């Protein structure tokens, strides 16, 4: 915890969030929680850094999928056994477009699969970035807010119920999109 409270901790968080969005298998949430517990007053700063790193990493993943899917992108998906899910993601994109990226950005779905395939399927890049910012910020700021408000005791709750929290939030988010579309 002492090391995480140093200036190197925030850089490590940024780097982990960046590479997780395109190649790394471990989500940055655990490191974000540890940093927020170490220095609660900086929780929202850590969430912002995590969001920035993740979105930039997602943009990098989009570029890999756009320009290098046949070589690098496919290799990354094979490394994590995601190749069989690729066709499912294509069908999801056909039906929901960038909203699929938002779902992956907030939930435990493999965000890297969606960033790589978004580039390959050439989803609208500005929309991809906007949805990534909203979904990743919602995820990381929610974690930071809980840790900031409730301290170390919330760590167990987040770890245990994150999937349920994600589903409830996504239902609210999707409902909001439909409500806005109707208005």
Automatic annotation (TrEMBL):
Residues 26-147 form the VTT domain. The chain crosses the membrane at residues 12-39, 46-69, 125-148, 160-180. Keywords: Membrane, Transmembrane, Transmembrane helix. The keyword Membrane applies. The keyword Chaperone does not apply. InterPro entries: DedA_domain, VTT_dom. This is VTT domain-containing protein. GO terms for cellular component: plasma membrane.
């Amino acid at each position: 915890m002492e090391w995480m409270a140093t200036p190197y901790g925030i850089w490590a968080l940024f780097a982990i969030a960046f590479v997780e969005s395109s190649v790394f298998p471990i989500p940055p949430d655990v490191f974000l929680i540890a940093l927020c517990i170490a220095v609660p007053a900086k929780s929202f700063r850590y969430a912002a850094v995590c969001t920035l790193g993740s979105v930039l990493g997602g943009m990098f993943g989009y570029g890999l999928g756009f320009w290098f899917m046949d070589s690098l992108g496919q290799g990354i998906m094979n490394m994590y056994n995601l190749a069989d899910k690729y066709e499912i993601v294509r069908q999801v994109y056909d039906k929901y477009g960038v909203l699929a990226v938002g779902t992956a950005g907030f939930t435990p779905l493999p965000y890297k699969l969606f960033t790589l395939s978004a580039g390959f399927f050439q989803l609208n890049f500005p929309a991809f970035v906007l949805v990534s910012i909203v979904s990743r910020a919602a995820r990381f700021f929610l974690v930071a807010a809980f840790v900031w408000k409730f301290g170390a005791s919330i760590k167990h709750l987040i770890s245990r119920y994150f999937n349920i929290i994600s589903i409830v939030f996504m239902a609210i988010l999707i409902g909001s999109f439909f409500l806005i579309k109707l208005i």
